[in-house]
Amino acid sequence: MKALLKIEAIGENTFQSIDRYRCFGAMADIFSVPKSYWVAKIIGFCIEYDGLKREFVKGNRDYAKANSKGTRGIYVSYFLDPGYYEVKHKTSWKHTEKYFCIVTEAGEIIKMDKLDVERCLLKKG
After folding, report:
1. Full-model pTM
2. By C-alpha distance, which of 90, 116, 111, 107 is closest to 35?
3. Residues with Cβ within 8 Å of residue 53, at least 6 apart in sequence
4. What span, in angstroms and rounded, lies between the C-alpha atoms of 70 and 29?
5. What is the DSSP secondary structure assignment for residue 51, as one 8-state letter?
6. What DSSP state is assigned to residue 11?
7. Do 1 and 107 meet the contact criterion of CB atoms below 8 Å apart?
8. I need a surface site. Which of 30, 46, 61, 83 has the fewest CB within 10 A?
């Protein structure tokens, strides 16, 4: 069973503006603004990127509750298969939360720390 994870994309309009600007010439390629939110499935170990191999999950944006500037109220829904994930998102304009979790076969999302995820991956083989 899949799990639904919904996070608010605080400041989403900033990224849309930069994406639009990128379309207007090579000069815009120097801009590399990371999104303030993402969800990545942990698919194993690797030497780079903090020791874990990740596959980023695409989310679906919902603008139904967005304010007029698009800075708040945009929610991104992720439908997650069972497995291990890392999640990063803003909880406010100044605070960001980053955590690991497991999605169980029953569709539950349970937070974990990185060491627990690594142990589970080692057991899996």
Report:
1. 0.81
2. 90
3. 42, 43, 44, 45, 46
4. 24
5. G
6. T
7. yes
8. 30
Query: Which domain covers residue 40, as residue numbers?
Result: 3-124
Rg (C-alpha) for the chain, rounded Å, is 16
What is the tens place of the pLDDT at every residue in 40-91? 999 999 888 778 999 999 999 999 998 888 889 999 999 999 999 999 999 9
DSSP letter at 30?
G
Residue 44, token pair as written in the block = 């194993």
Our count of domains for the chain comes to 1
123: Cα separation from own chain's centroid: 25
Q: Under a CB-based contact definition with an 8 Å cutoff, are residues 63 and 49 in contact? A: no
**Is residue 98 classed as helix, strand or coil in its secondary structure?**
strand
Q: What are the tokens at 25? A: 């010439």
Phi/psi at 123 (5° precision)? -65, -35
CB-based burial label for 109 (10 Å; 0-12, 13-18, 19+): middle
